[in-house]
Write a structure and sequence with these properties.
Pfam families: GST_C_7 (PF22041), GST_N_3 (PF13417). One of its GO terms (molecular function) is transferase activity. Keywords: Transferase. The protein is built from nine helices and four strands. Strand 3 and strand 4 form a beta hairpin. The chain folds into two domains: about 80 residues, 3-Layer(aba) Sandwich (Glutaredoxin), CATH 3.40.30.10; about 140 residues, Glutathione S-transferase Yfyf (Class Pi), Chain A, domain 2. The mean pLDDT is about 100. It has about 230 residues and is α+β, with helices and mostly antiparallel strands.
Length: about 230
């Protein structure tokens, strides 16, 4: 039975952009598993698999349905122990949990301040209405007023990756000599920024950018196949 990954895209279904889904694209490649990716619009997510989840990624792996990127990674690790490990043990799982916390509390808010309107602009009209309604309810103000200083957010963004640069002084990946799921967590965030805005907004001589380029090259350039 085909393994299916439901992901997220805007009006152009060839450009999936969810950071959490990109984690799983690379996790599936890491495990060398064949799968079919089905990008969805925001308003379609609740219609697939009997309304299994309101968010993506959703993975159908045979008769198993799993949502939440970290839970999917854990499922892949347990279901395919003979394939390359995403964690290399309990320590790797704990490390990935820490990296996930760092990404979602430091990197994601910084990206949102840059990309909010870019995301809105790549959506189809029905999804633009959904996105505006839900985000304006969350922030309590018009979408255009949520992050008024985009240029300032871009200028401040490189500093959010200083912890990554510090680590890169001693090893090429967060996982060491080779990447682990922890790498795919941060990669997913930067890929989200790149696909939605066209850039990761880092200087050309930045070690964090070098790391991102190495991640783009993984698995026959899987990350480069989206314009």
């Amino acid at each position: 039975m085909t393994t299916i990954l439901y992901s997220l895209a805007g009006a152009d279904r060839s450009r999936p952009f969810s950071p959490h889904c990109w984690k799983i694209v690379l996790a599936l490649r890491h495990k060398d598993l064949d799968f079919e990716e089905k990008p969805l619009a925001f308003t379609e997510i609740s219609e697939v698999e009997g309304g299994f989840s309101k968010t993506v990624p959703i993975l159908r792996d045979g008769d198993k349905l799993v949502s939440d990127s970290f839970q999917i990674a854990l499922h892949l690790e347990e279901a395919y122990p003979d394939r390359p490990s995403l964690f290399r043990g309990e320590g790797g799982k704990a490390m990935a949990r820490f990296v996930e916390g760092y990404s979602q509390t430091t990197i994601h808010p910084a990206i949102s301040a840059i990309a909010l309107m870019d995301i809105y602009n790549i959506l189809a009209p029905a999804d633009q209405a959904h996105f505006r309604k839900t985000r304006e309810a969350l922030f309590g103000k018009p979408l255009e007023e949520v992050f008024p200083d985009r240029d300032g957010a871009i200028a401040a963004f490189p500093a959010k990756l200083q912890a990554l640069r510090h680590m890169l002084r001693s090893q090429p990946f967060i996982g060491g000599e080779k990447p682990l799921f922890a790498d795919y967590i941060v990669f997913g965030a930067l890929q989200w920024l790149k696909v939605t805005t066209g850039s990761v907004h880092l200087p050309q001589d930045d070690k964090a950018l070098d790391w991102f380029e190495r991640c783009l090259d993984l698995f026959d350039g899987a990350g480069r196949k989206v314009a």
